[in-house]
Write a structure and sequence with these properties.
The complex is a heterotrimer of chains A (about 325), B (about 300) and C (about 550). With about 300 residues, chain B is an all-alpha fold. Chain B is built from 11 helices and no strands. Chain C has about 550 residues and is an alpha/beta fold. Helices cover about 30% and strands about 20% of the residues of chain C. Chain C has helices spanning about 45-50, 80-85, 110-120, 125-135, 145, 155-165, 185-200, 215, 235-240, 245-255, 345-350, 375-380, 400-410, 420-430, 445-460, 475-495, 505-510, 530-535, 540-545, and strands at about 10-15, 20-30, 35-40, 60-65, 65-70, 75, 90-95, 175-180, 205-210, 220-225, 230-235, 300-310, 320-330, 335, 360-365, 365-370, 385, 465-470, 495-500, 515-520, 520-530. The chains are: A mainly alpha (about 325), B mainly alpha (about 300), C alpha/beta (about 550). Chains in contact: A-B, A-C, B-C.
Chain lengths: ~325, ~300, ~550
Amino acid sequence: MNTSKASLTRSPGVPGSAARWLLGKAGGGIFVLWAVATAIFFGIRMIPGDPAQAIMGGPGSQASAEALAAARAQYGLDQPLYVQYFGQLWRLATGDLGTSYSLKIPVSQVLAELLPPTLILAGLGLLVAWVMALVLAVISTRSGPVGSAVASGLEIVSSAVPHFWLASVLIMVFSTALGWLPPVSTSTPAGLVLPVVTLALPLAGFLGQVMRDTMATAQRSAFALSARARGESEIGVLLRHSLRHAALPGIALSGWAFGSLLSGAVVVESIFARPGLGRSLLSAVTARDIPLVTGVALVSAGAYVVIMALSDLGERLADPRIGPS
Amino acid sequence: MSIPKPVLSAQDPLLRPLPAPPPHPGALSVRGLAGNLPWLACAAVLLFFLVAAIAPNLLAPVDPLAINPTGAFSPPGPGHLLGTDESGRDIYSRIVHGARPSLLIGAAATAIGLGLAVVLGTVAGFGGRWLDYGVGRLLEVLFALPGLLLALVFIALAGPGVTTTVIAVGLTTAPGYARMIRAQIIAQRASPMVEAATVLGRSRARILTVHILPNALAPLAVLATLGLGQAILWAASLSFLGLGAPPPAPEWGTMLSSGRTYLALAWWMTFFPGLAIVLVAAASTVLSRSLKSAGPR
Amino acid sequence: MNAVVPLLRVEDLDVSFGGTSVVRGVSFTVSPGECLAVVGESGSGKSVTAKSLLGLAGPGSLVRTTTLDVAGVDARNLSQRGWRALRGKQVGFILQDALTSLDPLRTVGKEIDDALRLHSSGSGSQRAARVIELLEAVGLDDPVRRASQRSGELSGGMRQRALIAAAIALDPVLIVADEPTTALDATIAASVMSLLGDLRATGSGMLLISHDLAAVASVADSIAVMQAGQIVERGTRDQILQNPQHPYTRSLLAAVPAGKPRFTRLSPTGDAGMDGVASVARPARTQPPATAPAPDVLPVLRARGLYKSFPMAKSAALPAVRGVGFELLPGHTLGVVGESGSGKTTTARMVLELVTPDAGDVELFGEPWSTVSEAGRRSRRSSLGAIYQDPLSSFDPRLSTSSLLADALSFGATRNPRKYTTEVAELLAMVGLEPGVAMRNPATLSGGQRQRLAIARALAPKPRVLICDEPVSALDVSVQAQILDLLDDLQQRLGLSYLFISHDLSVIRHMSDDVLVMRAGEVLESGKTESVFSDPQHHYTRSLLASAPSLPGSHRAQEGP
């Protein structure tokens, strides 16, 4: 009985621990970006055939001899491998992402145009998923067997319904049959509804499940019983105690969730014909536009790293048990 | 005293009984088959598609590639149970015949993903601090390109096609599984069970092979079941984006991809192949959960 | 008619969960200024009884009673609102699990303030001042800072004090305390108990729930003993402790190791058939093998100057173990007693060579043990066995009882029990388990059965030394008594030497020939058990002794039949 060690007091915020945390995250992020760039650089050269051709869209692209020569010159393909590699890293580090072969404009310009719409889509998706998940968790906690049946049903849906099918069904119902919402993502708010719901619904099922479990654990916990014994009402226990506990895994999973939204954006942007990183990645892959693929990969990896760090920070701020360092 | 006792259980209405956990929801036992309707339904779905994959002609004698231009875009009805596509091909027959390639792609991708994960997870779990650190960094990089992004970058390098799709999906699903297996091994390594075996004089090699690995890899069956459904989903997503098997192959993702063009005209072309994918994925999810709760302790 | 209106009056309380009855026909009263202790083992229904008094029996419960008067309110058909008016205001409830009963995300001050906010209308600053007052009243240092801390920043004892502060915030007329000292170190538990005693002196009634007769002996005016959902005996404290009538009360008292000399039986004999436990042939009781060992007797185990520090530990300032040394003589028991963080378990792990000491060495049978390679140790490991606090987690979950024993018997060569049928049966009989247990999965066994199985497995390779790390800490007192008796029997039959580690001074005192008292990684005092405890030299040993629960006017005559 007497073996749980009395937990030690949390070390007070050591000066510089925040800076060290930030430095660690930044270092990790730079490492990830370097690794992605390196993997793509050597990936192209490991594929049999002329790397210049691969960069220009593969054997089927029928790139002109001048284009191939230009690519060789741009990427220094006639130089030793290490010169090419460090040259490429240097260009990337200085923000020169090259020119998109398929769009004929600088990759950085393409990304500057496409990043905001994707961030808006993913951000809204995350927000809506969060709200839906919290509502789901509260309802299923408070409404007994029916609520939890609905919640676990939604959870299965979240793990088994692909974005493309959900989007198709939503279009069939709300655009084709009912005519309420446009089937393509226009710039109006109405045009955002279907893409955001498509992204948010499966995520909400997953987040809702995690939040529901944590909330149920909190409702059964000794501290909740303690609060009831003090005369706290059920609503009070839910709002003052359980809800905060349920929010924690939501915050912790937000980084991961954002990643899954970036992945889902590829499908959703192409179904709803919405400009964005995902859709342009798809067309770059189809055209084998390696500079653009590299750019999109670096930008999404960078966005993911930043969001992960933010979610980590949020978790630390929200949960005193983890501590600042 | 025979005063009837008043029932005092004006317990909080919110404290009502939690839904009684079904005794081993869907445990693989004969007991309570009737109470295991979800499990039975999942087994039936998987069995249907398994039979479809092995002997499609048994379930759908109509040729899935037979063209009938006059009967194009027939809605679901007596002639064509699930309707026809733009060339008048029978959707039901195409779904049944599509089970084999779709399941094979899913199974192969799962095998690659889990195989890679087992290697990475065990190397990280057993290989000592530096290998663990190295694998951890590698996984971090793979996680930084979540889901389809990693698959797409891989396809951009290796070119589209069924083989690439399979490898891409395996690569996409591997990091998550690897992390789970690593955590399992590390938890097992530090478990009191291993200490007890050490105290009994068992050698490191024996503890590793007899105690740690079997217990750490026990969840593999659960992961494989879950993974099959997920792999089919990912592969279908890639096919849907036009990067998988080329049409007119009766593969579910490819069918979806071609149906997408006619979404407003013939919803059944998209709806039913998608439903097949959803059913298989949902069945594998539910089944894996049952396996998990039926597992030891 | 009694002039004093009881604060709490329960008659014929029944509680059931989904058709399973857990409390049957329980009646008692608590008068102002009275402390009633309800004592029972796990599953006796004592906690559920306490929670039912506040309508908190939990989901799925069905509570019936003919009378339930709480602080002058007929609580039989109370609305939720009515219950909430009682809870906290009239009745302060101190729950089990001091470590987890405060919300880890909220400050201690907010948690205590909840009770004030819900029941009184004081302004925010008035309430804040009252919170500080309360924290001071329960003996927390620096109350202003404590109020702004969260439970993770407080030690177990501080958390329980904060919870008591919340429970007494509104000066309730009745205090219900459910196992208020579980999970607390002995010295902390004693101070919490004396705090509760002080509260009673203010005139509140108190209902104290506990598994430990000795622990409540100092506070309770009257005691009710519960077994299997019923009160089997009730009386004043002295009646129950001095002159128990019910056989269960007697066996509970007999099972308390406090004040029972070494080799006194704690459990009733002839417990055959109970809980899958077969009766064990009792050897003739003898005195310890050599009360004054010849100086040339070689210790089976000798540790010298053991040091160990864990660089990852949060308290990196001090090593976990500093300069620990001892000798364990053949056929003897060396007890190691200490509170959490004393380094006693780390010491055991160093002896077992699960961790390597930073400095110092261990010798087994006079030969180097900690300084040789693991390969060199492996063949000798069979002479050194171990049992743990949580036996189940030390078993491979994929093995049945008989496979587990076959694995141990064959030194890991096989797990097929068929080749070892006789040996498995012998081992099971030796530890008092019925033969039928062989086919079961250890997870389906009771806590006592699991520990017996763990002992059987440890004995399979025929060891001469057994390291026992808190082997009875997770067990009910009557099961603890059986296991302690079993260990005594085995020691005498097989000539085993024990290194016995426990936080419980009474258990150590009952089991050990020699003793080490440890605190913060150091041995403070060592020597013959009785000489150390009858004449403690170190003030910490004295405070440990003072805080160990004992039965007043103890009833040493109540030895085994």
